[in-house]
Amino acid sequence: MIAIYPGSFDPITFGHLDLIERGSKLFERVIVAVLRNPNKTPLFSVQKRLEQITLSVEHLPNVEVDSFDGLTVNYAQIRGASVLLRGLRAVSDFEVELQMAHTNKTLSTQIETVFLATSNEYSFLSSSVVREIARFGGSVDHLIPPHVALDIHKCYAHNKTTSNPKITEAVPPLNN
Ligand code: ADP
Questions:
Q1: Which one of the listed residues 8, 24, 56, 127 is annotated catalytic?
Q2: Neighbouring-strand partners of residue 66
Q3: Is residue 147 flagged as an active site residue?
Q4: 2-121: which CATH topology?
Q5: In the chain, where are the structural domains located?
Q6: Is the pTM of this model over 0.85?
Q7: Which residues contact 74 (CB under 8 A, 6 or more apart)?
Q8: Tag placement on the chain: N or C end, fewer CB within 10 Å?
Q9: What is the pLDDT of residues 17-53, one digit of tens each?
């Protein structure tokens, strides 16, 4: 059985990775699919996110990384997948995820949404939390893979240097 794990992954976190690792034990193949969303301005380009995820899952032979646009169920059908894998962190996730699962069911009865509960240690973790901490110069090394941490620090260090030289002085230097 093939599962699609769709999302923004802007950037991928240890919470996403935990879900991917657990999903890879349950399904024959997991396709991590980055949604190309023209309505959002992401921190990282789709290409960069694909690179970040590919490097993060290289130890998992049955995990593939791809991007898509349009309806997730259409993409799932094209890829021969019968499952959409999603994570649940809190009740707030549940409401949105349930609505999305029901909507997708009206579009395709062949595709099931499977939810995995977050692991305890990642229940607070989201890409936006990571972006927020990094934006103010905090360490995110415990939340995302090292190569992604490097990318995000570079990104914000660059933004601060170019847009607000005063704040740059308060940001610790890059650790590379
Ligand atoms: P979206 O933009 O659709 O919210 P995300 O990339 O943020 O996409 O998340 C993709 C999926 O991963 C969602 O189902 C989300 O609930 C799940 N997820 C994100 N962070 C965690 C986490 N820390 N633990 C479990 N699931 C998570």
A1: 127
A2: 33
A3: no
A4: Rossmann fold (3.40.50)
A5: 2-121, 127-164
A6: yes
A7: none
A8: C
A9: 999 999 999 999 999 999 998 888 999 999 999 999 9
